[in-house]
Amino acid sequence: MKYDPHSPRASEFINHEEILATLKYADENKNNLELIDQILDKADQEKGLTHKEASVLLVCDDKERNERMRNLARRIKQDYYGNRIVFFAPLYLSNYCINGCVYCPYHAGSKTIKRKKLNKEELVREVTALQDMGHKRLAIETGEDPVNCPLEYVLESIDTIYSIKHKNGAIRRVNINIAATTVENYKRLKDAGIGTYILFQETYNKESYQKLHPFGPKSNYEYHTEAMDRAMEGGIDDVGIGVLFGLDSYRYELAALFMHAEHLEARFGVGPHTISVPRIKRAEGIDPGAFDNSIDDDIFAKLVTIIRIAVPYTGIIISTRESKECREKVLPLGVSQMSGASKTSVGGYAEEDIENEPTEQFDVSDNRTLDEVARWLMEMGYIPSFCTACYREGRTGDRFMQLCKTKQIGNCCQPNALMTLKEFLMDYASPETKAVGEKLIEKEIEKIPHPKVKEITLQNLKAIEDGKRDFRF
Ligand code: SF4
Ligand code: SF4
């Protein structure tokens, strides 16, 4: 099997021999400071790195070069994403699942997990609860079960979610994290108005993948790995990739993750919209200690640093799996999106009595409310953003990438962040959070480069105070 990023075949674009050769090359050059400096000089141009170059940086343990990497990651984060952090919340529709993923409590053989699927009434309650917190952007999650959770149910749920208008609330972007499916089904999801299609590879190592996915449709490594190709063929041009760190060697996973990004760029002209960096966590019947590839906070921070440097145009997502302390550490290194006040159970936002009935997919480490998380971010100088503008303005796929590559995105993101934050402050924030937020907006408005955009933003902020909503650039 030959490595070929243009190939539609998983075994060729995520080529095992190429990954092993990459890791060997990285080991051989981990002390080659001349090469490392050359790679860092290239990274300095903010145009990204190859999987081979990134793999060398990952194993480099020279103190000074690592400091340079972190500074570079901080600078790229500032140049492309500023101090904005976009919020989203996961919404679990159903935990029925016919797969056997050994690291997930929803696996088909679980006897302890309570199976649940939201009916329409429950879905409305969940979405209303999310709107009442201030969320505007959701990521739908389901297990895989064509009988209990068919695509029609997911499509109907998307329709319902977009239709719910409670007080000033609205969900303006629904991202979808559901099992790998056909081109035809991806077209239907696209037509339903989804934002990003997210699917984690879990592990790119085929041998481990097969052990970890002993049965069910997901056990087909090729079908799963080629899912993003089918999504793009179905017209979805914003896709989100990721691995579950801890299942296999993080070095193997990172090289493969970048190969996947290179493949999408080579074949479709547009790389992944986002990369998620979940780590395996404790859950009902799942002990993360049983997986011997778990990574500590320092390695985790280095992974975020390298991803930021290697794919500057791709958003990095961090979830409430991570603690407040860990988030504080990695936010400046490149994170652009995070979940806040998440519930990882079916019906978790509206129900209060489910604690005795385990339906959670994993334990959440950060249990603060959205108001608290927003205030914490602002006190550190970040702007919590509820922006969903690009997808609603048709700026997806290569149109979004173009905007990002020319750094013009800053002219949209900054005012959109401030206007959506203002909505949050007016409608949902506590007086304390509101006071911090108003001050921040006053300061941040000055950073809008274009005078006309700044003027319109000021007018819109005033209009939001007067009760109007949903402005965007
Ligand atoms: S990871 Fe997804 S597919 Fe696997 S058992 Fe859990 S819900 Fe099912
Ligand atoms: S303007 Fe586009 S890229 Fe910027 S935060 Fe909004 S949706 Fe994201």
Describe what you observe in this structure.
With 473 residues, the protein is an alpha/beta fold. The protein folds into three domains: 68 residues, no CATH class; 285 residues, Aldolase class I (TIM Barrel); 67 residues. Helices cover 47% and strands 9% of the residues. Strands 1, 2, 3, 4, 5, 6, 7, 8 and 9 form a nine-stranded parallel beta sheet that branches. Strand 6, helix 13 and strand 7 form a beta-alpha-beta unit. Helix 3 runs parallel beside helix 5. The longest helix is centred in the first third of the chain and has 19 residues. It is globular, with a radius of gyration of 21 Å. The model has no long low-confidence stretch (mean pLDDT 94). The site of one iron/sulfur cluster has 10 residues, from helix 16 and helix 18.
Can you describe this structure in just a few lines?
This protein has 473 residues and is an alpha/beta fold. The protein has helices at 10-13, 16-28, 33-44, 51-59, 63-81, 120-133, 151-163, 183-191, 206-212, 221-225, 227-233, 250-268, 297-310, 324-330, 370-379, 389-392, 397-405, 409-427, 431-444, 451-465; strands spanning 84-94, 137-142, 173-177, 197-198, 239-242, 274-276, 315-318, 337-339, 383-385. The protein contains 20 helices and 9 strands.
